[in-house]
Amino acid sequence: MPAADPPRVDLNADLGEGFGRWSLTDDDALLDAVTSANVACGFHAGDPESVLAVCAAAAQRGVAVGAHPSYRDLVGFGRRYVDASRSELVADVLYQLGALAGLARAAGTRVSYVKPHGALYTTAAAGGPHGEAVVEAVRRFDPELPLVGLAGSPLLALARDSGLRTVPEAFADRGYTSAGELVDRRSAGALVTGSAEVAQRVVRLVTEGVVASVDGVDVAVDAASVCVHGDSPGAVDVARAVRAALEAAGVEVRAASS
Fold this sequence. Notes:
Elements: E1 8-15, H1 27-31, E2 36-40, H2 48-61, E3 64-68, H3 86-106, E4 111-114, H4 118-125, H5 128-141, E5 147-150, H6 154-161, E6 166-171, H7 195-208, E7 210-212, E8 218-220, E9 225-227, H8 235-248, E10 252-253
Parallel strand pairs: 1-2, 1-9, 1-10, 2-3, 3-4, 5-6, 6-9
Antiparallel strand pairs: 7-8
Helix pairs in contact: 2-3, 3-5, 4-5, 5-6, 7-8
């Protein structure tokens, strides 16, 4: 019998999330560890100059650039729900995709996928009008672009029904409930810290398809991409540890959009 293909996973991080003189993440160091960069589009973070620089740095390293659109919430870093109408949200997402696409092209690369940010990610994951708006915006902008979303979420089902390619995602450093949902950021256990612990969780997720919940129950998660939050404590060390552990376990780390 032919040998089975090695397991494969994408490793992504949110980048370009500074603004003006303020810098949030070590983009250059993270780009050396990840295979996909979720680049801010200006509505929650990211000014044109810094976004252009991130796109250029990603292009130099062969890292895929993805659009990371959010609600129009610069003050709240996109982590607050915005009661936008469906048509307003479609236009807002399209605006962000267009802005990043122009900067990416000027930097010698292109937008390869879309992943919502923050509160928009969480709200859209549940489906509903905002999930439908995200799907419509991606489809109208470029129906060939994959949509990255929470593994097992209604959003991915909506996207598939609309003809979009989907990339189910898991989180390296976020806690999970026994129902397979992310623990609310305001609750205990929302964030997993410690490079070794996070790396071990990700290897098990990719090779066994399970992650331990905050209740100690193993939850099945089928993910093609894993996110390491660039603004988490020790993010660079965590990303490096995860990448090294995956490769040591024989996992091919490669952009899901390639």
